[in-house]
Amino acid sequence: MTDEYFMQQALKEAQRAFEEDEIPIGAVVVQDNRIIARGYNMTEKLNDPTAHAEMIALTSAFSFLNAKYLPDATLYVTVEPCVMCAGALYWSKLRRVVWGASDAKNGFSRVQPVTSPFHPKTEIVTGLLEDECAALMKAFFKAKR
């Protein structure tokens, strides 16, 4: 399995969000080369502004492993995490965080561009399948305008 494969799985989650009229962001948590958790934005469905894809996937992964840290796991998310999610990712102590499209409006780098908000041991990979991830977001917001 490759990073591209797992990001495609995150894109499938983002498509689910899109189909449910949620901002189309999807995430998967991978450990030992298998998906242990999935999530997509559910802020409208759950009437909860914290129900981001990353938060849903992290909570599911913690529950699956019965653990509060994920030092051997990778999170794949279609869009750059916001400040709230970056904080949760920090505390989860993930081995890697991989995202597709940058988010100049709401991504963590908008408010903290100089230093990384992630755990010092976390490897960050950006821009994976960026065009595909960005296209879904653009299609969603174009339909809203």
Short description:
The protein is an alpha/beta fold. The chain contains five helices and five strands. Strands 2-1-3-4-5 form a five-stranded mixed beta sheet.
Characterise this structure.
The chain has 145 residues and is an alpha/beta fold. The protein has a single domain, classed as Cytidine Deaminase, domain 2 (3-Layer(aba) Sandwich). It contains 5 helices and 5 strands. It has helices spanning 3-19, 53-65, 83-92, 108-111, 130-144; strands at 26-31, 34-40, 73-79, 96-101, 123-125. The chain has a 5-stranded mixed beta sheet. The longest helix has 17 residues, at 3-19. The chain is globular, with a radius of gyration of 14 Å. The mean pLDDT is 91.
